[in-house]
Design brief:
Number of strands: 20
Shape: globular
CATH topology of the domain at 352-514: Adenylosuccinate Synthetase, Chain A, domain 3
Distance between the termini: 14 Å
Largest sheet: 10 strands, mixed
CATH superfamily of the domain at 352-514: Adenylosuccinate Synthetase, subunit A, domain 3
CATH architecture of the domain at 352-514: Alpha-Beta Complex
CATH class of the domain at 352-514: Alpha Beta
Structural class: alpha/beta
Bound molecules: guanosine-5'-diphosphate, 6-O-phosphoryl inosine monophosphate, magnesium ion
Helix content: 25-40%
Strand order of the largest sheet: 9-7-5-2-10-1-11-15-19-20
Length: 522
């Protein structure tokens, strides 16, 4: 099987949608494997523009499209999107779209919790408020509803009951005393020098309490594994590296307990009404059911038939829950390896990994961004690149290309080669800067440190390249590129240690230069 996996290699919005749509022509099917409708992938074909959030970009070319099990799916939003693209002339029927039966559902209560938490937090994450984090938390917490549950109304009430047993009550509901922040801090500081394998006592306690209180037991080991993963996905977990930094530990503990000691009740929000939720799910079930399928079996059949599969990543490596700028990340793994787990194929089946990289850097939402430009140059990049969020309409933060970050994301993301997009946005800049390292307390770093405090204090070291006056917009061959633009591309390749496989010079599908066909094994 000759496959390709496309992932974002910065902080998202690198132009994945455009490239996936272009590559779809060479593929038999397109598979989303993580994320949800926090993604916004833009595809421009002539005068038509499509903005996709949940639908794989393969639908634009009418290719078989799979929403894999690793995606969290808001069923209402999916139906809205199908209707919206239908009005624009794209017919999305069960003949082309399959929704993995074991994909987790995003419910209104997830969106509400996402928004409530963002509004209540003094240290905001800047989420898209689509409920993605809370839905992944429930998945890891083994209480989520999955697409297949919509097909089985008889068991739905029981599953909703288990879900709400968490959402409507948490520690208070269990009758357990609140966790004492000071005592927890002390315990952590005691354990810090040893870097113990598990990092907090509250997780084990919560695991045991939940097992005792529920009639539908999961049979956990009561070692706190589930709750610890939930806190990881909930971006409130304490990580090994935090133990090295006692000064910031109280703040992190405060964030953790803000969830565990209060939830909906604590936020002053009304409880979710189980029967109303059941009713709306039952209403939607018959419309979702035709799309349900066993996507792993279909992918297995495709492998046996020698078909070409294109795995469509959403978000990007710097938003990855493990390798990104935690906690300012999304709740899924976005690296190429996730394509295997999120679609149900062998890790050997992901094929060539193509990292999508913008010729400069942007970021939406909060979090460290070493090369951010809060000046006229940053404004100019944003204006020329039309840098406004596809999903939330927020203005994207802009800055120069950071080669340190992309070198790192190529390694952690498993990238074989990149697509460099939006080269045209750099047209007309007299000088173009590229970050080649960071300064921190008099030292030079050639990587992004894992500690968020250090990330926020980095000063970029720049190399300055000469710009070009000519236009690259719409170029379809190397011959059409000015010499300095080629120099820029070559320097980027050198600095990141990965070759440019494709180059993009406008939003339009056809304005793409192919250096090498990623479907042909190297
Ligand atoms: P994605 O989330 O990675 O799919 O990217 P988005 O669609 O959110 O944002 C990328 C934006 O850049 C979209 O509006 C694209 O139409 C546009 N785009 C993609 N490639 C290019 C390019 O090479 N040049 C220019 N000027 N725009 C591009
Ligand atoms: P595509 O696929 C850019 C960012 C949000 C926020 C953080 C967490 O279009 O590249 P979440 O709602 O996921 O809990 O928000 O992640 N984010 C994205 N930024 N592009 C995306 O997707 C993003 N999806 C999430 O802005 O900072
Ligand atoms: Mg986007």
């Amino acid at each position: 099987m000759s496959n390709v996996t496309v992932i974002g290699a910065q902080w998202g919005d690198e132009g994945k949608g455009k490239i996936i749509d272009w590559l779809a022509n060479r593929a038999d099917m397109v598979v989303r494997f993580q994320g949800g409708n926090n993604a916004g992938h833009t595809i421009v074909v002539g005068s038509a523009t499509y903005k996709l959030s949940l639908l794989p970009s393969g639908v634009v070319q009418g290719k078989r499209s799979i929403i894999g099990n690793g995606v969290v799916v808001d069923p209402w939003s999916l139906l809205e999107e199908i209707t919206k693209v239908g009005a624009a002339g794209l017919k999305v029927t069960p003949d082309i779209l399959v929704l993995a039966e074991n994909a987790v559902l995003v419910l209104p209560l997830h969106r509400e919790l996402d928004a409530l938490r963002e509004e209540a937090a003094s240290q905001k994450l800047g989420t898209t408020k689509r409920g993605i984090g809370p839905a992944y938390e429930d998945k890891v917490g083994r209480r989520a509803l999955r697409a297949i549950d919509l097909k089985d109304p008889a068991t739905l009430p029981g599953k909703i009951e288990r879900l709400l047993a968490h959402h409507n009550v948490l520690r208070k509901g269990f009758g357990a005393a609140e966790v004492d922040a000071g005592a927890l801090l002390k315990a952590l500081n005691d354990v810090a020098p040893k870097i113990a394998p598990f990092l907090g006592s509250s997780w084990r306690e919560l695991d045991a309490l939940r097992e005792e209180a529920t009639s539908q037991k999961l049979g956990t080991t009561k070692r706190g594994i589930g709750p610890a993963y939930e806190d990881k996905v909930g971006r409130r977990a304490i990580r090994a590296i935090d133990l090295k930094d006692p000064a910031t530990l109280p703040g992190k503990i405060e964030r953790l307990l803000a969830h565990h000691n209060v939830l909906r009740k604590g936020f002053g929000a009304a409880e979710v009404d189980a029967s109303a939720l059941l009713k709306s799910l039952n209403e939607i079930a018959p419309r979702i059911a035709p799309f349900l399928g066993s996507s792993w079996r279909e992918l297995d059949a495709a492998r046996k038939a020698g078909k070409r599969v294109l795995f469509e990543g959403a978000q990007a490596v710097l938003l990855d829950i493990d390798h990104g700028t935690y906690p300012f990340v999304t709740s899924s793994n976005t690296v190429a390896g996730q394509a295997a787990a999120g679609a149900g194929v062998s890790p050997r089946a992901i094929g060539t990994v193509l990292g999508i990289v913008k010729s400069y850097t942007t970021r939406v939402g909060e979090g460290p961004f070493p090369t951010e430009l809060k000046d006229a140059t940053g404004e100019k990049l944003g204006e020329r690149g039309h840098e406004f969020g596809t999903v939330t309409g927020r203005k994207r933060r802009c800055g120069w290309f950071d080669a340190v970050l992309v070198r790192q994301t190529c390694i952690t993301g498993g990238v074989d080669g990149i697509t460099l997009t939006k080269l045209d946005v750099l047209d007309g800049f007299e000088q173009i800067k590229v970050c080649t390292g960071y300064k921190l307390d008099g030292q030079v770093l050639d990587y992004l440190p894992a500690d968020a405090n250090l990330q926020a204090r980095l000063t970029p070291i720049y190399e300055t390249l000469e710009g070009w006056k000519e236009t690259t917009q719409g170029a379809r061959s190397w011959a059409q590129l000015p010499a300095n633009a080629i120099k820029y591309v070559r320097r980027v390749e050198e600095l990141i240690g990965a070759p440019v496989i494709l180059l993009s010079t406008s939003p339009d599908r056809d304005d793409t230069i192919m250096v090498q066909d990623p479907f042909v094994s190297r």
